[in-house]
Amino acid sequence: MSAILQPLAAVLDDDPDVVVTLSLQLHALGMEARCHSRPEALLAELSTLGPRLLIVDLELGQSDDGIEVLRRLAESRYAGAVLLLSGVEPKIVQIAERVGRALGLDMLDPLGKPYRLADLRRRLEGIRPRAIPEGQTNDVMRSREEIDLALARDEFTVHYQPQFELVSNRLSGVEALVRWQHPQAGLLHPGQFLPLMTPDQCHALTRRVVALALRDADRWTAAGLSLSMAINVTPAELMNDELLSLMDQGRRGLSYRAPIALEITESDSMDDELLGGEVAARLRLHGLEVSVDDFGVGFSSLSRLQLLPISELKIDRSFVRDIHAASHDAAIVEAVTLLGQRLGIRVVAEGVESLDSLPLLRAYGCTHVQGFALGRPMPAEHILLVDRVLQV
Question: Where is the EAL domain (predicted)?
Fold first, then answer.
């Protein structure tokens, strides 16, 4: 038997005015809120509350800070979403967001103080009520045993986020994003299950995603739509000896001939840069491309551009979302696009939340864009219904 639960949010902020305002706004957005001024009280109730969302201020008095809270949340295996809401310097917020992502937390795009209700609503659009079997905990739901069952039952699926070419304003490609269609919890995002998976499970998931993505791409080709495809892989998968044969077998017999890029996160590290370069070179020899995701948030960017045959850079959303308001973000975007132009590499701006940013991105030299303002991740059949020309 299942019970429909109203989404529960927990707020950690020591400013009473902010707490009152947030409580009222969350209630208006259909979310029950529990508020705390100190981390100990929140963490003590975390397992019993099971909040879908935590809103955390980074400044919590002299003895506490929000970054330490993120570490303790990760240690507690918190599986909900985290929204940083803080008035500190934007660079500090960006570092905290990166720390949370590195710890495996599901980090929403942060908000600065003051903020607008419309901005808060956009951040929370992905958090919905869900049916949870009574007495079943998040840990049991997302256990490795259940992941094995999900793989056997083909519960993992792929959604696709549209990508547009700025020169022509036309739909040009998609990014393949894995989802878990959980029978009780609904649609789960990668941050809710990837940190729990073993290397063998990750490899099985990669096989599943590649097979589904190539099958869907072939169907689009048959319908007259040729789109490039980016598929996310970990560095471990990129250097797996079976990856080349997996891709070759998957493409055998298909009419799909558009470019395929294997996408790695720039902040991930490779144990052996030379081996990584060898694998990337072999991928290129087999007609595949390498894309670097979240470019600009790691520390090995230039060395990778030198060592690896990279075809595409994707500028991290943290630099794109405030491109009009933050001059240092705009400068970084401009510098990366210039670097891409000089090296002959496609530059994709991720996280486009407003069409107003497109003229500036185009002026800087970005070749492609993707983001919620252009299209959210969607099932394969919906790609054929996407407007193929940007209305700007």
Answer: 140-391
